[in-house]
Amino acid sequence: MLRTKQGILETVFRKENKTAQQTLPYREIFPSGICLLDDGVHNKTVEFDDISYQLADLEAKQGMFHSYCGFLNFFHDEIFVQFIFINQKVNQEVIDRQITLPERDDELSEMANEYQPYLRRQNQKGNNGLIKRKFVTFGVKVKDYSEAKNRLERIELAVIENFKRLGCKAKVLTGKSRLNLLFRCMNRNRRFSFTTWEKMKDDGKTTQDVIVPTAFDFSKSTVFKMGKQVCTSSYVDIIAEELDDSFLSSLLELNQGMIVSIHVRAFNQREAQKAIRRKLSSVQAQALNQKKQGYQRGFADVPLSPELQATINNMEELYSKVTDQNQRLFNVVMVITNISDNLEESRLEYKATDDVVQAANCQLRPLIWQQENGLIASLPLGEQPLKVERTQSTYSLAILMPFITKNLFQITKNALYYGINQLNNNMIMASRKLLRTPNGLILGTPGSGKSFAAKREFINILLISDDDIMIIDPEAEYLDITKHVNGTIINVSPISTEYVNPFDITVNLEDDDPIILKTDFILSFCELAMKRTLTAGEQSIIGRCIKNIYAPYIESPVPENMPILEDLYKELQKVSDPDDEGRSREIAAELALGLEFYVYGQMKVFNNRTNVNLDNRVVTFNIKELGETLRPLGMLIVQELVWQRVRQNREAGKTTWYYVDEYHLLLRHEQTARYSVEIYKRFRKWGGIPTGITQNVKDFLGSLQVQNILENCDFIIMLNQAPEDLRILQQKLNISPELADKAKNVDSGQGILIYDDIQLAFTDKFNKNTMLYRVMTTKPEELKLFREKAAAEAKKQEVMLSLVPDDMYEEIDKTAAE
């Protein structure tokens, strides 16, 4: 029969006159998310995330398995349960848009022309064209909506708590979310246009009108059409004695559109035990009768038939499970609906599904002339009209483990590329801006690819956004890439003629007093200069001086009124004596003496007004030439300059990315460590995203401040790790041994990505025969090779030009002029 949507196509029928809306067997979906079925069952749907089950160790897997068994045992015989797993094809245009860089005609166009094909090649390696979602629908049969609401809310709390114990997030779907889900199951490349229940009723529509496709066609025995899509519904005949816990995951890893639905209905425990005893007594009586017949024929010992003995063993084992091992019995129906674009694709995808099912020693059986019921059983409605149940115990059902591994492919304009998921070859695309705290860390041994990972990230940022990037570069590893993108390099050293004034402020910022914000920095600066913690009296005197030296600039904010370090030094020398003992004068003199070395001595590099362009999109502070004495002070000053940029950019609604290589250096000194922690605590509010990069993980973890940083960090790239470092990180970040192995003795560009609660093993291999690779690599042997190749190419060009006759140059010039 062909069923069409009212008002769109003419209704055609074969046996009965029914519309597409009538295919959906429910009476109503309420704004609360409760759905009322035709038989009076009310149900709700909860969506749950995946967890990295496949990368867990054996002990962790066993723990998850037993937790999942407890979850299943929660569903008693009065609760209808359906687990739904949806692999939905995404319009390829959506994926293409996600990985397509904006067109540009600036200095970044050459990079974009190399990076774009690279992203397309990476996309082809996995099944990024699928959105994978998981749901559980649970229902009860009650008299009215009010009673259903109370009972379902109690079940909902227990379900979400069970998922929490399993380590995954879960959320209940609202009515609009359920309608959207059903719409997505049945429609592809169409827009969900539902607004409110009130408007829907005013338009004279029902929820079925909103979600059904243009037509259903159930006129074939083993396939049906849903809109323009060709579909096949089948059920899995679970005939294997034992299943592997990878069976369901193998199905869900197929690169095709499908809905896998598992309906579960528990037996009453007492009735189940009675039924098993009756069956066991029956087969035991058969065995006794078989032996008695043998004795009558004169046989002393009559062996039971293999079939009867197997039945007895199975029933005894089943009785033990139900009575001694706290297992339930369930009626289980597993239905798979393949959703394809055309008939040929449908056949191929059905065959791929059948191959996975047969590999598990089960059978995939088409629902002949029951395709409509197969669709109904597949949709997340909680309705199960098929008569193909299979009885399973808790353990047998739990082996259909619904967890595989987490994917990370976010469809949003801010998503950046972070490599390939090692488990399924899917691209990893994520936006740090969506994180609760987008602060990040990149950790790894020398040569593991730390700076390469940072450069690849900020190149991606430059190519898709107008965000700013600031870098502290202690080893001069970011100079080439900064030059290549026409960024600004500030060489911070005692002999540099490029100056940055640490006393710079911006007075047009809203909400915050710039003098108060600057005072905290200057106090830290003075502590580093004095090499000790300031007393309360010293802080008070410096605070008075700061107010005085900024007064002219606040009154008239012109560049020549901006104070420098020397102004503070002179102001301290002018401090009057407010008490009889002259203590303030002594304190001020001591403070001025401590600053004198940085005002007139060899370290006067910080006693100048800014003479470099800090407004560039990319600014790299090269602090390689700073000695041990100046380095803490230099890093503190750079951090303050970054704060200034972040504050300015917040007013413009722009994000500032901040990279610090050799990050452990900042944590060695109290003042820079305190400033670093403050950045990780407050940057989010100001629109800043910091990333610390370090190879000295042990030094990093040994800092008293590191715990504050880890607690405010939802993004971590762990590349190859030293064994002891890996052990500590594994414990602090709760990483399983199997996943931890992905960061042990691995090649450059491989490791673990942590994004909020998602932990993935990734690999990021870049084509070395590209301009991008040449400006990103910092490996000495590769840099040497690239320089030699460039020199050889230049020499070759020189030789070739020397062979060209002089009169040919005249001809070339003439042609060019014409």
Throw out a few tags for this protein.
818 residues; alpha+beta; Vanillyl-alcohol Oxidase, Chain A, domain 3; Helicase, Ruva Protein, domain 3; 14-stranded antiparallel sheet; 11-stranded mixed sheet; 28 helices; 44% helix; elongated
What does this structure look like?
With 818 residues, the protein is α+β, with helices and mostly antiparallel strands. Among the domains are: 2-90 and 129-267 and 328-398, Vanillyl-alcohol Oxidase, Chain A, domain 3; 271-312; 501-609, Helicase, Ruva Protein, domain 3, CATH 1.10.8; 780-817. The chain has 28 helices and 25 strands. The strands form two sheets. Strands 1, 2, 3, 4, 5, 6, 7, 8, 9, 10, 11, 12, 13 and 14 form a 14-stranded antiparallel beta sheet that branches. Helix 1 (58-74) packs antiparallel against helix 4 and helix 17 (536-555) packs across helix 19. The model is unreliable at 6-15 (pLDDT under 50).
What does the secondary structure layout of this molecule look like, with pairings?
Blueprint: E1 2-4, E2 26-29, E3 35-37, E4 41-48, H1 58-74, E5 80-89, H2 92-99, H3 109-123, E6 130-141, H4 145-166, E7 170-172, H5 175-186, H6 197-202, H7 207-211, E8 215-217, E9 224-226, E10 229-237, H8 247-252, E11 258-266, H9 269-296, H10 306-324, E12 329-340, H11 343-359, E13 363-366, H12 371-378, E14 390-393, H13 394-398, E15 416-421, E16 427-430, E17 440-443, H14 450-464, E18 468-473, H15 479-484, E19 488-491, H16 514-530, H17 536-555, H18 565-573, H19 583-599, E20 618-622, H20 631-652, E21 656-660, H21 670-686, E22 688-694, H22 697-702, H23 706-711, E23 715-718, H24 723-733, H25 737-740, E24 750-755, E25 758-763, H26 771-776, H27 780-802, H28 806-817
Parallel strand pairs: 17-22, 17-23, 18-20, 18-21, 19-20, 21-22
Antiparallel strand pairs: 1-8, 2-3, 3-4, 4-6, 4-7, 5-6, 5-11, 8-9, 9-10, 10-12, 10-13, 11-12, 12-14, 15-16, 15-25, 23-24, 24-25
Helix pairs in contact: 1-4, 9-10, 16-17, 16-20, 17-18, 17-19, 18-19, 20-21
